[in-house]
C-alpha cells in the first residue's frame, strides 16, 4: 500500500460523486452514502439533504469526515479520507452552491457513465417536505489517501 499524492487525491475527488459521510449523532458514529461535488476553487465538498437527524447532528457537532473510493478489485483500489467542518449554506449562496453541485455531478455522470441526466432527482433524491433542500458544504481541513495496486 502507498500514500496518494495531493494531486491523486484531488483527481479522485474530481472524478467521483458518491462517497460516505461520517458524523456523530447522540454520541454514536454514523456513516452513510451520499452524493457530493468537490469544488476545488474553495476546497470544499458540496451536498444537500432534507431536514432530519443527519442535519441535526452536523449542526450540533460540525466535525465530519468523508471517504471516497475507486475500487477495481481487492488488490487494485484507491481511497481518500477527508476531515472537515460542516457549514450550512443559505439564501442566494445556497442556490449558487446547489447549481454548482447539480452541474458538476451531471458533468461527471456524462464523462464517466456516458449518459445524460436532465434533473437533480435523476441522481439524488433528497429534498425536504416543503421542497427546500438544506444545502451544505464541508470545508476540508485534512486530506489523506491510500492506494493498493498489485
TrEMBL record:
Q: Which SUPFAM superfamilies match?
A: FMN-binding split barrel
**Sorted alphabetically, which Pfam families does this protein's record hold?**
Pyridox_ox_2
Q: What is this protein called?
A: Flavin mononucleotide-binding protein
Which InterPro entries does UniProt cross-reference here? Pyridox_Oxase-rel, Split_barrel_FMN-bd
- What lineage does the source organism belong to? Bacteria, Pseudomonadati, Bacteroidota, Flavobacteriia, Flavobacteriales
Read off the Gene3D superfamilies from this record: Electron Transport, Fmn-binding Protein, Chain A (2.30.110.10)
Can you tell which superkingdom this protein's organism belongs to?
A: Bacteria
Amino acid at each position: 500500500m502507498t500514500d496518494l499524492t495531493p494531486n491523486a487525491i484531488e483527481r479522485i475527488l474530481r472524478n467521483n460523486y458518491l462517497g460516505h459521510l461520517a458524523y456523530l449523532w447522540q454520541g454514536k458514529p454514523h456513516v452513510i452514502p451520499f452524493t457530493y461535488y468537490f469544488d476545488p476553487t474553495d476546497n470544499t465538498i458540496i451536498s444537500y439533504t432534507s431536514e432530519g437527524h443527519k442535519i441535526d447532528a452536523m449542526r450540533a457537532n460540525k466535525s465530519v469526515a468523508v471517504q471516497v473510493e475507486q475500487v477495481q478489485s481487492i488488490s487494485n483500489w484507491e481511497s481518500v479520507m477527508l476531515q472537515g467542518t460542516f457549514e450550512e449554506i443559505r439564501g442566494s449562496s445556497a442556490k449558487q452552491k446547489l447549481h454548482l453541485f447539480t452541474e458538476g455531478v451531471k458533468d461527471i455522470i456524462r464523462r464517466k457513465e456516458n449518459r445524460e441526466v436532465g434533473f437533480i432527482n435523476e441522481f439524488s433524491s433528497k429534498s425536504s417536505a416543503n421542497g427546500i433542500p438544506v444545502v451544505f458544504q464541508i470545508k476540508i481541513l485534512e486530506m489523506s489517501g491510500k492506494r493498493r495496486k498489485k
